[in-house]
Amino acid sequence: MNNQEKAYLFIKDQINTGHFKPGHLLSENQTRIKLNMSRTPIREAIKQLENEGLLVRQGQKNR
User: Fold this and answer.
1) In a 3-state reduction of DSSP, which class is residue 32?
2) In Å, what is the CA distance from 61 to each residue of 12, 42, 58?
């Protein structure tokens, strides 16, 4: 299993078990640290979950 698959399964499990509730702010950096991997597989996993309708990306606010 590669890192993208590991990240995907971790995030999906957090959603399915209710640990990540609607409105939860998912931090790529915190997830990267928790899973001890680079940001690229985290980003790819997030894209996959977005395509499945489990996550919605919100743009960063202008300062």
Assistant:
1) helix
2) 26, 21, 9
Residue 21 CB partners (closer than 8 Å, separation 6+): none
- Rounded average pLDDT over 28-47: 95
Residue 7 parent element (H or E): helix 3-16
How far is the CA of 37 from the CAs of 17, 47, 55, 59, 62, in angstroms? 22, 17, 20, 23, 29
At 57, is the pLDDT very low, low, confident or very high (cuts 50, 70, 90)?
A: confident
Cα–Cα–Cα angle for 17, 12, 44, nearest 5°?
Answer: 160
